[in-house]
Every structure is written in C-alpha cells, then in structure tokens.
Amino acid sequence: MIQRNHSNALDRSSAERGYLLGIETSCDETAAAVLSLDGVLCSNIVASQHEVHRRFGGVVPELASRKHTEQIEDVVQEAVCCAKIKLADVKAIAVTQGPGLAGALLVGVSFGKALAYAQSIPWVAVNHLEGHLASAWLEQPELNTPCVILVVSGGHTHVYFVPRFQEYHLIGRTLDDAAGEAFDKGAKMLGLDFPGGPALDQLARSGNPQAVRFPRPYLNRGGLNFSFSGLKTSLLYYLRDLKKNDKECALADVAAGYQEAIVDVLVEKTFRAVRRYKVETVAVVGGVSANSRLRTVLKDRSAESGVQLIVPSLGLCTDNAAMIATAGLWAYDRGDFASWDVDAKANLQTKLCHLVEATDVEVVNQ
Ligand code: KG4
Ligand code: ZN
Hints:
Bound molecules: 5'-O-[(R)-(carboxyoxy)(hydroxy)phosphoryl]adenosine, zinc ion
Distance between the termini: 46 Å
C-alpha cells in the first residue's frame, strides 16, 4: 500500500535552490521523499510490505529485499511526481546506509547511488537512527536545545541528551530487547497479527490497564537504561498459567496491562532524564512513538511538569524517507557527501557528531 503525504506550500525560493530526494529501505518499508533545500517537505511516499510478511508473522529478510527491488523505482517516481518537480531539479540524494537488514539496505543504497551518479549529483549516506532523531525537527524546526530525545523503534530504545543542534549524548539504552520488540513479541504471544505493535495497541484500547499488573523492569534503579526481556517472560508465564489453570481472562486486559508496563517504564525514564539534565523540551520518536497510550501518557506528563513535548505525527513515527531526507539535508548543508565506494552497512555504528555514552548513569541516585 502506498501512502501519500505531500504539500504544495512551496515558494519560489525553494524551486530556485532545488530539492533533495530521500530513500529509505532498511527494513520492510520502501520509502522515498522530496524535501526542498529550504526544508519544506514536498512529498513523502511509503510502500509498506506488511502484506508480504504477515503470513510469516515477522519480516523475512529475503522477501523484504525482493519487494524493495520491485517497488523502489515506482516509489521514487511517485515521490518526484507528487512533489511536482522533475528529476533534474534534485540536487542530492540521501539514502539510509544502515543499520538494518543487509539485503534491504543494499537495494536503497544501490538505487540511490546509481541515480545520483547518472544525474551527476552527490549522495549522502544517512544513519537510520539519525533519521529518527531528525524526525523531531521535521514538523518543529524551531525545536529548542538543550533537550532530551527518546528513540523507540523495533531495533532501538535509546535516550539522548542533546545539548546543541546535531550533538547527541547517549545517556540510556536497552540492555536487551528494544521496546518495539517487546510489543511485537508480546503481540505474537497474544495471538495477534503482524505487525504486532499496532495490533496490541488496538486490542489494549478496550482493556483495563489496571486489571493485570506486569513488572516494571529497571524502574527502581536510578539509571536511564532499560530492559524488556524479563517483561516478555512475565507475559509468557502469565499466559501459560492461565491455560494450565483453565482460567478465563480478557485478552484485552492482558494487552492493556502489558502495554502499560512498557509505557510506564519509557515515560518514567524519559522524565528522569528530563529532570537530571534540567531540560525544558523532550521529543519521542521512532515506530513505538505511534502508540496511542504512550502518546496520551506523555502528553499528560509533560503538561503536569511544564515541559514542551514533541512527538511526530503518526506517519513520521514509523519508518519513512522524510526523516532520512531531513538528516540528509543537514549533511548536505555540512558538505558531508559520501564517496561512490561507500556501501550499505547492516551494523552501522552511529556516526553522529560528538557521541558520548554516559556509562556512569546507573550509579547516580535519583
Ligand atoms: O521505527 P520503526 O518503523 O522501525 C524500526 O526502525 O525498527 O519501528 C517499528 C516498531 C515495530 O516494533 C512496531 O511494532 C512498533 O514500532 N510500532 C508500535 C506501534 N506502531 C509501530 N508499537 C506500539 N504501538 C504502535 N501503535
Ligand atoms: Zn526505524
């Protein structure tokens, strides 16, 4: 399914400066977006592969690569067409280099590089995580620093202190599973369809979050790290005991209780970071930031504490190329172009500026 989101709000100066094309193929979304070099989002196309992977209950890497290959040309064409520009107006191409599925990344990088070479324009290699971080600025270019940003996706649960624009200090991370994995695996145990996170979110809406209480891992520790694997095991045992004892329990209550535990930990730790780093702005980005309960609790909590909250609109939380184009535009402005021999890298480490891992946070008492 191709989703469209485009704006015609371009002025003459955008057209004169030109455009940047963003491409994202790190997992199971084939996506392309056009951003004017002044930062106006002109088109944002996402072709989801959920139908392909649904019957397997998870993303099958080989099928993902094949589907990207089938779709990428149409998706890029659609992005250019929706932006009402010509390919010749594109001055640079930004592509997700990693981290992600090797074969899937390779499709986007090969396509983007070939197109850039053919058009005699530069290409920019974007770190997927930097793309998620950039999504905080996409709709809020005036987002103030210092701030705290929580990145919650299928592969990452990272908290950053951002003292200045484009400077990130990693101050907390998951020690095992990412929050998105906890949602996906929890959904699987509950017998829900792929993709699990949105399905669990949906089911939990009709449940009582207080009916079943699951543990809040790592909440009582002073630090900013997370752990979700024990929570997953609690759900497994809870469902096993229900079955063994032939007990009845509304699955919606179980889903709501499980979701509440994840949300509780994410919100508590994020606001712990807000207090510790004394910031007045917090952003939450990545696929899990689409979760309805997380968005509600974050909103209430930020209103209570007088902190400005930035959460992208739904289509910009999950993987998309608008965020890759935004991070790509920052690199373009820095003149940070990739050479032709740079390739996709599944385990790409962050090349974010000034990355500092605050390893001492666990021993600091709150
Ligand atoms: O950012 P993303 O699209 O891809 C990665 O970079 O991983 O995040 C995907 C993750 C998946 O685990 C998915 O289940 C989760 O985000 N997700 C949600 C919701 N929408 C997506 N989790 C909970 N509630 C949602 N509504
Ligand atoms: Zn992502």
